[in-house]
Amino acid sequence: MSVLDSKIPEGPLADKWTKHKNDINLVNPANKRNIDIIMVGTGLAGGSAAATLAELGYNVKTFCYQDSPRRAHSIAAQGGINAAKNYQGDGDSNYRLFYDTVKGGDYRSREGNVYRLAEVSGNIIDQCVAQGVPFAREYGGLLDNRSFGGVLVSRTFYAKGQTGQQLLLGAYSAMNRQINRGKIQSFNRHEMMDLVLVDGKARGIIARDMVTGEIERHSAHAVVLASGGYGNVFFLSTNAMGSNVMAAWRAHRRGAYFANPCYTQIHPTCIPVSGDHQSKLTLMSESLRNDGRIWVPKNKEDVLAIREGKKKPTDLSEDERDYYLERRYPAFGNLVPRDVASRAAKERCDAGFGVNKTGEAVYLDFKSAIERYGKEAAFKHGHKNPSDEEVTKLGKEIIESKYGNLFQMYQKIVDQNPYETPMMIYPAVHYTMGGLWVDYNLQTTIPGCYATGEANFSDHGANRLGASALMQGLADGYFVLPYTIGDYLSKDIRTGKIPTDSTEFDAAEKDVKDRIDRLMKASGKHSVDHYHKLLGKIMWNKCGMARNATDLQSALDEIKALREDFWANVKVTGKEDTKNAELEKAGRVADFLELGELFAKDALHRNESCGGHFREEYQTEEGEALRDDEHFKYVAAWEYTGNPRDAKLHKEDLTFNNIELKTRSYK
């Protein structure tokens, strides 16, 4: 076991990033024209980085499996993006954003990285406004803000309920400008199949054209992975159906350490599972918790009556409702962090207070907000004693202006009107804080291989605060990677083009073709989805919201057996040299079956509870997470050794010089 060097600069926290930018090497504009960069993934992290690097003069190749970068999963981040602008004048600052993020991650993230994230957050908003992103504005013309979980200020910028989509369109337009200039070559409907190393450095990828089935070689001086998270290892998640871990896992198998895989976020505000044939889950934005109040009935008699259809939630009076987050966490109420809110919902449902037929749902109710906004609007209209009908009408109009598309989506899926009856929600797998280990420069343990956004582990610790995913992706892409990658590429100005006819490319392409051939020649007893669903059940039941040593050890054994059966008996229809969705899924599930085992191993070794990693053996008397800072205050980075359960542990010790380590409290 080795101790990893994060390359955090010396000096005061607030000066680290500025000093680092002043110290690192640069590439002169004339030399940038001779340097190639591959970008795998074109969501917010990849799209912003590709556009910025091309604007600087580098030659960029982008790869995405979608038919357009506009279909990246980033568009699903509806609620907003954090930045410490302090437009509300409520006491926000770079330090406050830094503090909230470290605390929200349960003190399992780097101080240096997180402060840099807070420091550049304001620049992101300026950049996106310049691109024309239509952020909501308040009456004075300033950009509006709302609150998200785990904070006591309003710092989340938003564009109604479609923030991710609007931000992605901004990055996409910047990309298109560079495509039109010839500085970006865009390879859509292409999937990275392997990473190519030459003399120990990342020098290219093997990709599959998903339309023709052709295996292609692409070389570059550096490779950036911006391919998102691995939540679909659980099968049911809020991720897009195509989201996968292949790019990151291929790099892991080539030598990039995988950090903290067990840190997976369960989002508290999702539409509950409706049946065994469901293929994905739908997220209701955390922004709804600004105005929605979460509750279950106080009495089990009312719970049973609601489940049996004898009562409606609107029949229950305020005294008959348990607003359990407001009761347990009075300081933060419904805006506690996601891991806290998720566990609280599970506790109420496990205790028998779940309100749907399966007993796995709680209410998210907007009645109070409609009344509050309606009275305020009526007062502004000069109506001092408005009728209940007028209050309700005006209140609904304001809620619609803030969350209308989210309410519409809920009604289409559930066939219930959330303006009239409370939404039903339940926690679901959403975001992965784990990912490829990177240093302060966003470089993995493979020289020349970088990872940005959700593909890396760096900024969120054991739990991500809401509205910070978009912030990290755009911070990495617009303001961090364009500096740090230049330090590495400054040594390549005389290298020239990287040839693709080398023995290293030959070997990597052969490995890819052999793997495809093995998948196609399996016996064909069960579909790919059969194995994915079985893996998902193991992961959710034994590695999900709550974990224990017995279940995790069982998961290790069950996943290994499932993986062996997969390779022997999976059924992949069609042919490898043409369009083949089943082959694509098979390759992704094969990687999930390896990742799942490493996930369980990581969760088993970490004998503590922190953030999204909740071990039942380690909790306070009140059911809160119980950290062990003496033994586990480190990043667990795993080296691939040929078998996930034999992965070698490397530690990066976490130091806290600017924040006091203490038990999180949102009470």
From TrEMBL:
Cofactor dependency: FAD
Signal peptide segment: none
Pfam families: FAD_binding_2 (PF00890), Succ_DH_flav_C (PF02910)
Keyword Oxidoreductase on entry: yes
Xref: Gene3D superfamilies: FAD/NAD(P)-binding domain, Fumarate reductase/succinate dehydrogenase flavoprotein-like, C-terminal domain, Succinate dehydrogenase/fumarate reductase flavoprotein, catalytic domain
Transferase recorded as keyword: no
Every Fumarate reductase/succinate dehydrogenase flavoprotein-like C-terminal domain range: 532-666
FAD-dependent oxidoreductase 2 FAD-binding domain span: 36-470
Listed InterPro entries: FAD-dep_OxRdtase_2_FAD-bd (IPR003953), FAD/NAD-bd_sf (IPR036188), Fum_R/Succ_DH_flav-like_C_sf (IPR037099), Fum_Rdtase/Succ_DH_flav-like_C (IPR015939), SdhA/FrdA/AprA (IPR030664), Succ_DH/Fum_Rdt_flav_su (IPR011280), Succ_DH/fumarate_Rdtase_cat_sf (IPR027477)
Highest taxon, organism lineage: Bacteria
Keywords for the protein's UniProt record, in alphabetical order: Flavoprotein, Oxidoreductase
PANTHER family: SUCCINATE DEHYDROGENASE 2 FLAVOPROTEIN SUBUNIT, SUCCINATE DEHYDROGENASE FLAVOPROTEIN SUBUNIT
Protein name from the UniProt record: Fumarate reductase/succinate dehydrogenase flavoprotein subunit
Source organism (scientific name): Mesonia profundi
